[in-house]
Structure formats: C-alpha cells, structure tokens
C-alpha cells in the first residue's frame, strides 16, 4: 500500500523546519559563538552534524551576517568548507538524479545538463545563480571581500578540523569525513563541459588554487 504525504503534513513540516532554523539563528545571536556557512554540496551535512546543529541552513555569509547583525558577526568565529568545482558539480547532479527531484533533470545526461544549467541556464534557474554559484560568491560581501574567518577544503578537511574544533569547542569529528564519492567521476565530463565549468567557477579555481 502506498502512503502519500498530505498537504497538512507537508505544511507542518515546513513550519517545523523554519522554526528550527530560527532557533539556530537565535542561538548564534546569543549563546553559540560560531557560525558555519554551508555552501551546497561541500560536505556541509556532515559538518552540521558534527557541530550539533539540528538543521541545515543554506545562507550565504552575507545573508547570515545580516540576520545576526554586523557587530555580532564580527564577534563570533565564522567558517566554511569549499570543494573542487568538478567534484561539487558531480555531487549536485548525482544528488538530484537519485532523489525525488530527478524529474527536474528532464532525463538529461550529465553533459547535456551542464550545458543547460550552467551555460544556457534554461533549466533549474537557480543552479548557476544559487545552488552551484561559486563558493567564493557564497562567502563574499558586497565588495567581494571574504566574510568568514576560516575556509577549509573538503579534500583536506581532516587536516583543518582540529583548528575548527579548537575555535568552536566542538568535540566531534564529521561523519564520513574521508568517504569517497562513488559513481560518476571527473572523466565523465566532456571537453565542452570542462570549459563551461572552468568559466563558471573561474573565481574558485583562482581563489582556492584548484587545478583545472
């Protein structure tokens, strides 16, 4: 027997999600002296778990600063995780393909999707501007200055985590910190897709010294 989620349950779930998110902001305003900026598909779910945050927040650094206020933002420790653009794009595509959102891909293969989403931008209108906006954009202010105190690379998070633990007081290690991402690999991109990614993520390749 199939079980469908009714509108009321979905609505209540949305209320609960927004309430939990509001509690995270309230805690960071008053009691928690650090804030994690969760860039999509950069290992943030594991980090959210490790820091004891009950729900994910996909705020840009600028949005979080505005919610907390500039003075409070400057008082607390702020950090984020970035990821190689190729691996981040693969992770995003695989996530969409393997979840309830798969229909949004319209059956497009990886390379056709890259062309549509990051070059032509005619499907998933928020992919290029939000979900897969360069990590740098997620972390910059209005004048392109990085707002967070520390930026760690997902690829070397195990090296950076001890300092994050020291600054935050967190005692846990992110689960699956060194877990490999199976399935599609970088060689799945054709030459056209690689050029699109290199253009779209130019600022990240340069800012974080990632190889193209």
If you compute it from the alpha carbons, what radius of gyration comes out, rounded to the nearest whole angstrom? 18 Å
How many DSSP E strands? 3
- Low-confidence runs: 1-5
Give the total of domains.
Answer: 1
- Order of the strands making up the biggest sheet: 1-2-3
Task: Note the overall shape.
Answer: globular
Number of helices: 11
Mean pLDDT over the full residue set: 90
Report on the architecture of this protein.
Helix content is about 50%, strand content about 5%. It has helices at about 5-30, 45-50, 60-70, 70-75, 85-95, 110-120, 125-130, 135-140, 155-170, 190-200, 200-205, and strands at about 35, 75-80, 150-155. The relative contact order is 0.16. With about 210 residues, the chain is mostly helical. It has one domain (about 10-205).
Features:
212 residues; 50% helix; 7% strand; mainly alpha; three-stranded parallel sheet; 3 strands; 11 helices; single chain
Briefly say what this structure is.
The protein has helices spanning 7-30, 44-50, 61-68, 70-75, 85-97, 110-120, 127-131, 135-139, 157-168, 191-200, 202-207, and strands at 34-37, 77-82, 150-153.
Topology:
Elements: H1 7-30, E1 34-37, H2 44-50, H3 61-68, H4 70-75, E2 77-82, H5 85-97, H6 110-120, H7 127-131, H8 135-139, E3 150-153, H9 157-168, H10 191-200, H11 202-207
Parallel strand pairs: 1-2, 2-3
Helix pairs in contact: 6-10
């Amino acid at each position: 027997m199939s079980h469908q989620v009714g509108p009321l349950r979905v609505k209540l779930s949305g209320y609960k999600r927004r309430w939990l998110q509001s509690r995270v902001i309230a805690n960071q305003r008053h009691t928690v002296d650090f804030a994690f900026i969760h860039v999509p598909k950069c290992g943030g779910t594991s980090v959210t778990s490790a820091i004891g945050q009950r729900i994910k927040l996909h705020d840009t650094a600028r949005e979080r600063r505005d919610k907390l206020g500039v003075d409070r933002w400057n008082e607390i420790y702020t950090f984020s995780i970035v990821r190689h653009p190729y691996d981040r794009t693969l992770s995003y595509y695989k996530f969409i393909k393997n979840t309830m959102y798969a229909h949004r891909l319209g059956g497009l293969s990886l390379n056709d999707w890259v062309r549509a989403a990051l070059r032509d931008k005619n499907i998933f209108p928020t992919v290029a501007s939000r979900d897969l906006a360069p990590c740098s954009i997620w972390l910059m202010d209005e004048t392109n200055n990085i707002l967070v105190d520390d930026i760690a690379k997902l690829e070397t998070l195990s090296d950076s985590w001890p300092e994050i633990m020291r600054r935050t007081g967190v005692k846990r290690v992110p689960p699956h910190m060194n877990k490999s991402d199976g399935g599609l690999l970088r060689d799945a991109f054709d030459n056209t897709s690689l050029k699109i990614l290199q253009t779209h993520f130019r600022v990240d390749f340069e800012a974080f010294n990632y190889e193209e």
